[in-house]
Amino acid sequence: MTPGGTARVLRADQQPDWPDPDHLHRVAATLRSRRALVAQEEVDALRRRLAEAAAGRALLLQGGPCAEIFGAPARHETEQTMAMLGRMASTLSEGAELPVVAVGRVAGQYAKPRSRTTEQRHGTVLPAYRGDAVNGTGFSARERAADPDRLLRAYDESAAALRRLRSMAQWCYSSHEALLLDYENSLVRTDPDTRRTYASSGHMLWIGERTRHPDCAHVELAARVNNPFGVKVGPSATPDDLLDLITRINPERTPGKLTLITRLGADRIEDVLPALVDKVRLAEVPVLWVCDPMHGNTNVTETGTKTRSVADIVAEIRAFVGIHRQLGTHPGGLHLEMTAHAVTECLGGTEPVRAEDLGKNYTSACDPRLNAGQAADVASLAAEAWAH
Ligand code: PEP
Ligand code: MN
Question: Does 95 contact ligand 1 (Cβ within 6 A)?
Answer without folding.
Answer: no
